[in-house]
Amino acid sequence: MSNLQATENQKLQQEIVSIPRPARRPRDYQQIPLYKDVNLLDWEDWHWQIKNRICTKDALAQIIKLTPEEEEGIDKAKGRLSMAITPYWGMLLDPEDPNCPIRRQAVPMAQEFIVTPHEMIDPLAEDRDSPVPYLVHRYPDRVLLLATDHCAMYCRHCTRRRLVGEHEEKEANVSNRFDAAIEYIKSNRKVRDVLISGGDPLTLEDEELEDLIQKIRSISHVEFLRIGTRIPVTLPQRITEKLVNMLKKYSPIWMSIHFNHPKEITKRCKIACDMLAEAGIPLGSQTVLLKEINDRPYIMKKLVHELLQIRVRPYYIYQCDLVRGTQHFRTPVATGINIMEKLRGHTSGYAVPTYVIDAPGGGGKIPIAPNYILSQAKGKYVLRNYNGKIYTYLE
Ligand SMILES: *Cc1c(COP(=O)(O)O)cnc(C)c1O
Fold first, then answer.
1. Which of 35, 53, 122, 155 is catalytic?
2. Is the pTM of this model over 0.85?
3. Are residues 150 and 100 part of one domain?
């Protein structure tokens, strides 16, 4: 190992040791005047959580000390990707620290309304690649179905902010909403994998979701179904016995869960993930690389280690898309490459996700990795390993 790498490693070790033990126990909600009369049965009821989401400045001010940037952000967000925070997530916010990673993901800030060059409304050109309503068909063998435009909580870095939010007109709540999408999948025998996302599909009622899953499952060439969600993180109460038993009937279903920071992995979240894992649903994580939230190697390492402990396999780290109003969240690509460098080889392979850029203009996910091939000629590969030693492979 070179001296430089040795000091890098030493620095990383020191960082890991010096992580302040975060108070992973959420605040006790009954200590907050707003919730002092709420009983635990209501608190644990996901419909109650949705109905009582924090959507106003006044309500939020009873939970945290708002900054002027946040107050301005909340005012401006109305009617766009408006603020909505589950009381559960509210208890994870640091009341004093505006840089709290949980807070920055949920509370709008004035910077969200600054549009910088290269930022787009639909950076992944999903609307262009949509053959029928609610469907995006980009890859030959799999499709993305946008089952709803609602989420339990609206992430301020949302890539589908053009679609997602609490809109005036409720989405058509008729059971034939997805007829064209289902027909499209039926008539495309190459589609073997359907990814149900949104919005967050787990905000649908059990019956609605089952109706959709059942229709997709009954298409014989669909081998594989997955759900993209953030509910186990933002509203773990939604993962009920009833939901899990329903999903179990349609096995195999895989689930990709959006996790960004170790602080999101609470006891309550673990219970939800345990229920899913025990129902035979393989769990993966999707993480958006976010400036000053999870852009340090030691934070990402802590996150992936804790994910493995709750049986979630790190799947993707996304470079933050070029979506309008997200510049304050975006890091250089080199930051992501450096994180991958500090993971691969230094920890369990299962803990290492793939870092991708979802290509602007609809090129799909492109893996970005440190370069381990130093030279390649005449059947000879000169490679470096994770700690800088050089090896030759002869073909
Ligand atoms: C991400 C994505 C998929 C799934 O991609 P995988 O790499 O298979 O997880 C499918 N369709 C679209 C449009 C996507 O954005």
1. 155
2. yes
3. no
